Amino acid sequence: MSTPKTLKSKTITGVFWSFTDLMANHGIQFIVQIILARLLLPEHFGIIGMILVLISVSNAIVDSGFSQALIRDQHTTQEDYSTVFYFNLFISFVLYGLLFCTAPIISVFFDEPQLTKIIRVLSLVLILNSLSIIQKAMLVKKVDFKTLTKISVIAVITSGSLTIYLAMSGFGVWSLVFNMIALQSVQTGLFWYLNKWMPSLTFKVQSFKKFYSFGYKLLLSGLMDTLFYYSYFVIIGKMYSTNQLGYYTNAVKIKDLASFAIVSTVQRVTYPVLSSIQQEEERLKYGFKSVIKTSAFINFPLMVGLAAVAEPLFIVLFGDKWISSVAYFQLLCFAGMLYPLHAINLNVLQVKGRSDLILLLEIIKKSILTVLIILSLLFGFGIIGLIWSSVIHSFISFLINSYFSAREIEYSSKEQIKDLLPSFLISLIMGITVFQLGTIIDENNLLQLICEITIGIAIYITISKILRIQELNTLYQMALPLFKKMKENHRMKNL
């Protein structure tokens, strides 16, 4: 059993390297995205958007929920790891063959001739991903985010540099294809080089059954989540122009770089840590409550702030040709406000081994989303209406997730909302003020952007200090050891 001191140390170390990953990895991706948006056309991003659902669903099937099952299990053996490894690899080859054969049919569906070759090449990432699933799960289980950060940063820099070179050389949409392949190739190579694990020549049916009983429910829930997340790409790609899908794809990409960065950082640190105290109810509840409040304190102002500065942000970074993405991006930010809360609530259910409940919740939530999408299409609300359905669904999902997680740790939805309300209201006040400021300073987009960001941060921190919001102090207390660790690392390098 982990002692409080050991648990705190592991969490701080994990947060430190996840924070480093967040700043470096996602920062580099953001810079690469800016350059590509200026070099490529919206239709190039639209073509990739058409097949993201295929790659994402296939990757979910390859994993089959086994990585989460391995992380949760406290007594994993070499036979367990080897069994899951061979299963993942086998499924990846099966799915690659399936996508290779059906590529022409998919191309006809979207009326896009280029898709056949693109699908057949891009699907190679499935095999590459299957080779690194075990390696990644082992590092996450050990809370070794230092190694994970090194791998992701090197991979993003390498693939990003290649992609920019190809885009400048006139490769168009193929530069985006090779970006994904290069990213996964470098990551896989580094996982094998740095983790030093090799599978044994064994496949144990008992091991497979043990992890499958937990993992298949996560697989089904994950598949539903992925299918519905990317259903917007399919609907827009089929019913509207490739350009419109490109505007939507880029808006989603930028929103995800901010929102999912917070989600992945919080989720990958808290899941293994909370798993280690899954039997200690009081500590589990306290840790969960602290994570929920702190995540909201960070993510609420980030999403609201990005929505408020969206227009000058897109013009300054991407140019006037992407102005059509602004409205999509603003609505997506409001949907993204609650993404970390979804992940944390579901983490509790995973920690408690309730993969059956996670699957049931996904069925309920996706049924609601289906109704919202159908209503949006029937009433002809267009792409904006589709995105509004995502916003509404995000808030409904939070209520559902929090209600059922409360049954496991006795932290009700009402308590969660009460704890989250201060950060939510302060963020709205900040966002409205910043947006109104933009109507005054509208002659110089760069000046407007700088003023809005500066004033927005100042307003949020000032109000938080006046109201004595505990999370501001919590972040300060978390940042202190992080800065000390950074300073110590810098000192050691100079010795």
Number of helices: 20
H and E order: HHHHHHHHHHHHHHHHHHHH
Strand percentage, roughly?
under 5%
Class of secondary structure makeup: mainly alpha
Radius of gyration: 22 Å
Intertermini distance? 37 Å
Catalogue the unreliable spans. 1-5
Can you summarize the main beta sheet?
none
User: What's the average pLDDT?
Assistant: 83
- What best-fitting shape do the alpha-carbon axes yield? globular
Helicity range: over 70%
Give a count of the beta strands, DSSP E runs of length 2 or more.
Answer: 0
Describe this structure in words.
- The protein is an all-alpha fold and 495 residues long.
- The protein is built from 20 helices and no strands.
- It has helices spanning 4-39, 42-63, 66-72, 78-110, 115-122, 124-130, 133-141, 145-168, 173-195, 205-239, 242-275, 281-308, 310-318, 325-336, 339-351, 355-378, 382-409, 413-440, 445-466, 470-494.
- Helix 3 (66-72) crosses helix 10 (205-239).
- The chain starts with a helix and ends with a helix.
Describe the structure using short key phrases.
495 residues; mainly alpha; 20 helices; globular; disordered N terminus
Helix and strand topology:
Layout: H1 4-39, H2 42-63, H3 66-72, H4 78-110, H5 115-122, H6 124-130, H7 133-141, H8 145-168, H9 173-195, H10 205-239, H11 242-275, H12 281-308, H13 310-318, H14 325-336, H15 339-351, H16 355-378, H17 382-409, H18 413-440, H19 445-466, H20 470-494
